[in-house]
UniProtKB/TrEMBL annotation:
Chain segments annotated as transmembrane: none
Similarity annotation: Belongs to the multicopper oxidase family.
Name listed for the protein in its UniProt record: Multicopper oxidase
Span of the signal peptide: 1-21
Alphabetized PROSITE patterns for the sequence: MULTICOPPER_OXIDASE2
Length: 612
């Protein structure tokens, strides 16, 4: 079946780059990589150290340097066994190239916009989770790179920056959903330091896993619709007058195969997930072998609940979330990954056979995450694990090495000193002055249409909503309130409840969608939460550090300390891309002690326009 859709932003005269075709069901491939000289040396030395014997530690001194790369935003044809379409990409790659740097490196990225015509093709660059200034040519998402334009971003990465998994994507307000849904995103890795990188981790195969997904038609969430998203039909910030500027048209040339019995897109109303641009790729395991998988949820609007095949003997050991190591590995049966979130996972399989990394949209988690298929990835297989027995050689027999030869580190690398613990180990936290407290509410209400905002206001980029002084601990109360009458779902839903079968109750406030909280330029620590927020510890634990936090029921308190590199205006927003485009965001200001500026008074009781 071939469908033709004319978008507001592309150009038939330009040669369209084509991604490598027909990689579905084949060996799991890694994105192409741009890495600094320092990152190359660190990777080699840490690998050599792990293979030379446990406990050996390289003593070489490696200097940080500079990595210069070019990212060209261009039209690219995505091809697979089941669906082909024209979309936007970075330099013709889906997913985009992986960028690998060292702490202390300078990263210079030249973004060239080769697209033609129309505001839906405006773009820019955001390094999600990185501790970078939100001003100038650093992680400043206010200026756009217009079609035919170019911008040079320069990032000086701190010497003490956390080593971990981050990612990058376009952040032009009003176009985020369009560009992310079109699969324009890539991984960014800050490599570990040699002096505190466990040899157990260095011995593991290190894999990037970028999750991306789209729906074809009759989608539960209209913003997941592939053609509508790329066209940017539902952008809240895009006025009818803007469409007159988009005088170029783009033939999406969407082709879908629906006549095969096992075609994953037979039900085109559900999201279908691709890992590194592949459908259900194969990954070979040796029983007893750990692999490190850097899972990145680059899906625009949906939470991914990740599991391994039930009863498979494959186990998930989480070593880091959002680029920040845990103190020690945590065994998890399910990893809830909000849009924008990352999980570094050591995966081991002890049984021989064929198993899977899967998404599991379990109805038992309705009360935590919302109803099935409401901003949640449907249950499906993502990556196939082919687990075989390890071959033994004479050396193995002589050394009495068993198949379970790989181990987890007992202690993981420490976070930087500037990310100081603000809560201790108990719930009795020290008091924070009122002028450092802030109430941040994701608000949903109805006017002519559904409206997404913060504290019952939509984003106004001319307005600073809150200000913070550097080196002063901040305490924010995060919450979600849906003022629509139809949102008052009875939270005593049975396990099979769906939007069609749920019951309304005027005495409850069980919202039907979650809203991941993300703040630019910093991580934050979870310092407290309501009892109903996460009673089973599925989402997060007290003391965890995140940069993207799923919010649904109940409130969550976070603490963090703005540092001098954060001086300027930065965004705090919902990471459901369509919600952020719709105005579910605020601008906050960070200032130093020498800066004199007006600070908006704390609203202890938020003034809200409550619908009748």
């Amino acid at each position: 079946m071939a469908l033709l859709v004319y978008l507001q932003s592309a150009f038939l005269a330009i040669v369209i780059a084509v991604t490598s075709a027909m990689n579905d069901y084949k060996s799991f491939r890694q994105p192409i990589m741009y890495q600094s000289d320092c990152a190359k040396q660190i990777t080699k030395l840490s690998t050599d150290s792990s293979s030379s014997g446990m406990g050996d530690r390289p003593t070489a001194m490696i200097e940080a340097g500079e990595l210069r790369i070019n990212l060209v935003v261009q039209v690219t044809r995505f091809t697979s066994d089941y669906v082909d379409f024209n979309t936007r990409s970075y330099s013709g790659h889906i997913p985009a190239p992986t960028i690998k740097v060292c702490p202390g490196d300078r990263l210079v990225v030249t973004v060239t916009n080769s697209l033609e015509g129309g505001k839906s093709n405006n773009t820019n660059l955001h390094l999600h989770g990185m501790h970078l200034p939100p001003v100038g040519n650093a992680d400043n998402v206010m200026p756009d790179v217009v079609p035919g334009g170019q911008r040079i971003y320069s990032y000086d990465i701190r010497q003490d920056h956390p080593a971990g998994t981050f990612w990058y994507h376009s952040h032009t307000h009003g176009n985020v959903n369009s560009h992310l849904q079109g699969m324009m995103a890539g991984a960014l890795i800050v490599v570990d330091r040699l002096n505190d990188f466990p040899t157990e981790l260095a011995a593991m195969e290190d894999l990037i896993v970028i999750l991306q997904a789209f729906c074809i038609e009759n989608c539960s969430n209209k913003h997941d619709d592939l053609q509508e998203a790329i066209e940017n039909k539902y952008s809240h910030s895009r006025k009818v007058s803007d469409q007159k500027d988009d005088d170029k048209v783009w033939d999406t040339d969407l082709e879908v195969v629906e006549n095969e019995a096992d075609a994953p897109l037979n039900d085109t109303s559900l999201l279908t997930v691709f890992a590194n641009g592949q459908y259900l790729p194969k990954l070979n395991f040796v029983a007893g072998e750990y692999k490190r998988m850097r899972l990145i949820n680059a899906i625009a609007n949906n939470v991914a609940e990740l599991v391994t095949t039930y009863g498979s003997g494959c186990m998930l050991e989480v070593i880091a979330m959002d680029g920040i190591y845990y103190t020690r590995p945590k065994a998890k049966e399910v990893i809830v990954l909000p849009p924008g979130g990352r999980a570094d996972v050591a995966i081991i399989c002890t049984e021989i056979g064929t198993f899977y990394l899967e998404t599991d949209c379990a109805s038992s988690r309705n009360k935590l995450l919302g109803l099935v298929n409401q901003h949640r990835v449907p249950s499906q297989r993502i990556v196939q694990f082919n687990v075989v027995e390890r071959e033994m050689n004479d050396l193995d027999i002589d050394l009495d090495i068993t198949a379970n030869f790989m181990h987890l580190p007992s202690v993981l690398p420490k976070r930087p000193a500037y990310m100081e613990d603000t809560i201790g180990t108990s719930k009795s936290h020290p008091l924070i002055e009122k002028d450092r407290q802030y109430a941040f509410e994701f608000s949903v209400w109805m006017e002519n249409d559904i409206v997404f905002g913060v504290n019952h206001e939509t984003l106004n980029i001319s307005n600073i909503n809150h200000s913070m002084r550097v080196n002063e601990v901040q305490e924010w109360e995060l919450s979600v309130t849906d003022y629509r009458k139809e949102s008052l779902w009875n939270c005593n839903l049975d396990d099979n409840a769906t939007p069609a079968t749920g019951h309304l109750s005027s005495s409850s406030n069980c919202h039907t969608m979650n809203h991941p909280f993300h703040m630019h330029s910093t991580h934050f620590q979870i310092s407290n939460m309501d009892d109903i927020t996460d009673p089973d510890g599925v989402l997060f634990d007290l003391g965890d550090w995140r940069d993207t936090l799923p919010l649904f029921r109940g409130g969550v308190q976070i603490r963090f300390t703005p540092r001098d590199y954060m001086v300027g205006n930065l965004f705090a927003h919902c990471h459901i891309a369509s919600h952020a485009d719709g105005g579910m965001a605020q601008l906050v200001n960070v200032y130093d002690s020498e800066t004199r500026m007006w600070v908006r008074p704390l609203m202890t009781k938020m003034k809200r326009k409550v619908p009748p």
